[in-house]
Specification:
410 residues, alpha+beta, 12-stranded mixed beta sheet
Length: 410
Amino acid sequence: MMPLKYTFKTALEGLRTNKSRSLLTILGIVIGITSVTLIMSISQGANDLILGEFETFGSKIISIEPGREPTGPSDFSALFSDSLKQKDLDALRNIPTYTNIVPEVVVPGSVSFEGETFTGITLGANEIAADIFDLEVEEGDLFTDSDVRSRASVVVIGSDVKEELFGLSDAVGNNIKIKDRNFRVVGVFKKKGNSLFFNTDELVLVPYTTAMQYLLGQNYFNEIIGEATSEDVIDETVFDIEATLRVAHNIDDPEKDDFYVVTQEGAAETVGLITGIMAALLASVAAISLVVGGIGIMNIMLVSVTERTREIGLRKALGATNRDIQNQFIAEAVGLTVAGGFIGVVLGTLLSFIASIGLTSAIGADWPFSLPFSAAVLGFVVSASVGLIFGIYPARQAAKKSPIEALRYE
């Protein structure tokens, strides 16, 4: 039997004699491995980014959403639910392990000052929102609990809002218009930068009571956010929240809940599941390129077997066994696909890096460049497997040739 080292040397010489054909043959493999590497990198980057955003809010955050829990991406029932109201907020404040509770209402539209208009994120909440979102006031002050209770027309604005409406002038003490109502600016938040969920520098924060009565004309919240006193009591707190709201809403059957509770851990698991499913779906598409590439490898190897019939006969006449011939052609097929896999991993890494820069620019948040080691390993393993699987048949055809008939082949 021919030594393994000589088998690979012979296979490499066979590939070198047909460089152009070899490059064209591995194109499908290159595309497939590039796609797999790119998909895994972007999926991991998305997962890291979202989990990083969750960490900035803290692992103890517990949010309560109105409506039933969505059953799919097209289920928008929560957007039209009015199930969370002031009585619920009052009841939740009696839970000892649920603190820093912030009711939220979203006010669509823009704000203006002396002809200048800015479309940001107008949010009705209480003064605790600054702590939950880790916001620091740079100029002026936050509005107070007294402002919330009295439905005062006061507002704290983000740094981008201030720059757009007031430029270098002082904002504190001036009135801005929200839905044709004057609001006195009492504070400006320190610049923080963009995040995945929203840009706090574009935030316009008003008392939720004021927003509900004068801007929206509604008596319900879009969301309630709070914090467990410690990570050890999160499950207990969730249980108490659900029990409290079921009593408040006269619900006996949990299946009929008109609200749902989300923890950071639960949200992180959901994100991981979603990114995993997306990666699997996209990878299945990339797998088609690998199959096409594998078929191309098999076809070109069959052509090569026919073209090298005399060579096969000569080698057999000189003592090469069927196993030697078979191993040589399998080695050539695997060598082709591994080369394609290497090029694919390099291209995928480069494109992933470029994509992370582009996504950072597009969403305004720092999209992390992440290339899992498993992506590179998978690229080489898959490419070698494709070469082995699709190279076996041509290799066997080559090994079956009779040396006498092969030497007579013209």
